[in-house]
Design goal:
Length: about 475
């Protein structure tokens, strides 16, 4: 076969593939920036202000309640009790409802790995593997690739709604929302100018935040942050061990506090401790196989002690969440892991099914992609036959590892503004790791057009959220939805 014939066959085989030079050109920063600017024709930045109030046939209660059948029946009323506390807690539990509403809003067609539930309470501090207190997103139950605007709008609306919850005036609320969106836009432009490794290694930690506040001569906020960081460092497995366990026949056992904490022995009535242990250990070994080899080795130094179902969060209430107690060197070396059920993301009806067959893996892979530093025990598992005989997916992480979050009951306007800035930066960094950051930055531009549009959207969506909350309140009064006590 001649050289000419080889070239000809190769050209036919790859006729639709761009040449290496073309690929380099397509991926060059100017071409990526051009794609971002061209997206303005598809979705003008000002169009993100658009949000039409719900049509009469939209039933927010039905949309929120559509997955209740898959939850633990006796816990569903607790979920609604928590959502009924305020319009803000309703918003926290209604990620699926907002996803349904966002489906009709403009999109530039620039995708990133989404958190899927990027409201302000899903940001916070936790320990990095190097034992620094870092600030990052910390909830990824709904993570999935999708339009970057969805996370930004969920974050922006949460500041408007939380500000109303605190009875802050309109100027304070709008300042917080604009700060969050401006921080996202300006940070994305900064990340677009950085090299790839620079983006990957970027992170916020408590020490750098304190230093920045001191540079700005904001000593009051710096001291408040230092106090919060010191308190967070005491929240670990030792504290959980002291609070959540007691001795039974000389062995630590998780305290029963139904329905909020229910040990496995109470749920698996009629089974001996040995039977329970023999059922749990194969699942635990399956989880271990999803960890890095060095972390598997670390975990091998711990033994199984007890397991209990625990109620957590707002939107998660009713999904199966377990806490697992392990002991290491001795009885003063505890490790608590949280094993949290997860099903399909609320984004999947709008953006397609996850590429991962196990939704626990979907959460873990999304978290690793978006976070600057993730829990060393982050992994996943599938229980092929739970207590109810159904297969379920779970992801695993430490229960408490310096985890802390903003105190919305006490935060003041200045603190809310600073928090908005940190959240905007963090979300931009998370998106920059998985998206075409240059295209998104070019789309957002230097002006505040996008900021003001999203702030207008946030105000309109907060109005809608209040109506939806009132609809849930009415549904409870009429007996359509059962809401229990939450103590």
């Amino acid at each position: 076969m001649s050289t000419k014939e080889v070239v000809t066959e190769s050209e036919v085989e790859h006729a639709d593939a761009p040449t290496a030079a073309a690929k380099d050109t397509d991926h060059a920063p100017p071409a990526r920036a051009a794609r971002g600017k061209a997206a303005r024709a598809e979705a003008p930045r000002a169009s993100h202000a658009e949000f039409e109030l719900s049509p009469p046939d939209r039933d927010p209660v039905a949309l929120v309640d559509q997955d209740s059948a898959s939850r633990v029946p006796e816990l569903v009323p607790i979920r609604y009790a928590r959502m009924l506390v305020s319009p803000f807690t309703f918003y926290r539990g209604a990620a699926g409802l907002m996803a349904n509403d966002l489906a009709a809003t403009p999109s530039a067609g620039l995708n990133a790995q989404l958190c899927g539930d990027a409201h302000l309470s899903n940001f916070g501090g936790f320990a990095s593997p190097s034992r620094d207190l870092v600030f990052d997103l910390n909830d990824f139950d709904e993570t999935l690739p999708g339009p970057f605007e969805w996370d930004v709008k969920r974050l922006a609306a949460s500041f408007e709604i939380a500000g109303r919850d605190r009875e802050f005036d309109e100027n304070v609320r709008r300042t917080a929302v604009l700060t969050a969106v401006r921080s996202y836009r300006e940070s994305m432009r900064n990340f677009a100018a950085m090299n790839n490794l620079g983006v990957w290694y970027s992170r916020l930690d408590a020490d750098s935040l304190v230093a920045e506040l001191r540079r700005e001569n904001d000593k009051k906020q710096a001291k408040a942050l230092e106090r919060g960081a010191a308190k967070a460092r005491t929240k670990d497995s030792m504290k959980a061990f002291a609070k959540l366990t007691h001795l039974v026949d000389g062995e630590p056992r998780i305290i029963s506090d139904p329905p909020f904490i229910v040990p496995i022995a109470e749920l698996a009535e009629g089974r001996s401790q040995d039977e329970i242990t023999s059922a749990v250990l194969p699942l635990f070994e399956g989880y271990q196989r999803t960890l890095q080899s060095d972390r598997r080795k670390l975990l091998e130094g711990f033994r199984y002690v007890d397991l209990a179902r625990k109620v957590v969060g707002v939107g998660s209430v009713g999904t199966r969440c377990w806490i697992l107690l392990l002991l290491g060197r001795d009885d003063n070396d505890p490790l608590f892991l949280q094993i949290k059920e997860t099903g399909p993301s609320v984004l999947e009806p709008h953006h397609g099914r996850s590429q991962f067959r196990n939704h626990g893996q979907r959460v873990v892979e999304g978290q690793r992609l978006m976070q600057a530093a993730s829990d060393i025990f982050l992994g996943w598992i599938r229980n092929k036959e739970g207590l109810d005989g159904r297969a379920r997916d779970f992801y695993v992480r430490q229960l408490w590892d310096w985890k802390t979050s903003v105190d919305l009951e006490a935060i003041l306007p200045r603190g809310l503004e600073l928090y908005a800035r940190a959240c905007g930066w963090t979300l931009a960094r998370a998106h920059a790791r998985s998206s075409d950051r240059i295209a998104i930055a070019a789309y957002l531009g230097k002006s505040d057009v996008f900021d003001r549009a999203v702030a207008d959207f946030a105000r309109a969506y907060a109005d809608q959220n209040e109506k939806d909350y009132a609809t849930l309140v009415q549904a409870v009064r009429e007996g359509r939805i059962q809401a229990g006590d939450d103590v």
